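Team,

Forwarding the record for the chain on the shared tracking sheet. I've put the sequence and predicted structure together so nobody has to dig through attachments.
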Amino acid sequence: MKETLLKTEKLCKSFSNGGTMQHVLRNIDLELYKGDFTIIMGASGAGKSTLLYALSGMDMPSVGAITFGGQAISGLCSDELAVFRRRHCGFVFQQICLIDTMSVMDNVLAAGLLVSQDKKALAGRARELFTAVGLPEESWRKFASQLSGGEAQRVGIVRALINSPEILFADEPTGALNSRTGLDVLDTLTRFNEQGQSVVMVTHDMRSARRGNRILYLKDGVILGECDLGRYVHGDMERHEKLSAFLTEMGW
């Protein structure tokens, strides 16, 4: 039986838009499991990113409960949430937001030092992660502004993993990359997942979605359905056909 990592109960998120309430998430009951590569899909405006931000503690729900490892996080104050995110979550975004005036290594260490003051140990882990994502040593001393988009995203992944998070959240991590570079990023995320890293990724791209073992489809703030693809196997056409049939059924 899979171990539950994160759970929501009756999760709702609403915004006031010109005096009218806009209900973005509606009574979502969801369990995320340790070691899964969970994909969140849906049309534009379905609530995908809003759900991701709520699950990660970056945004608070209007109503409902979120528990992580048995700890209720939906009632934490902003400072407590910041500590929770630093210790338990990693984030990879479409816009990578590295600090251009800092070196690649210093960008990563800055994130690590928010949790640990052991700079030597952090630097050692950073070197291991840079090697794992295929970023050569000569790039570690570059300024972030000197990197290509693909290199910057790999640094973003290292930064997200430097504190050994239980769960890695990714919001359209290949959206701003070309096809070849995007594939490299997907390969990197897949390798870490195969080593046990739990991943939750928002995407609108079928190629990216095929990397997940569990697909959640959102429509109008509700989980309309889900699909179990099993573990990723390169070149598995049955996997592609199963996902295509599921998305067609969902009206994608």
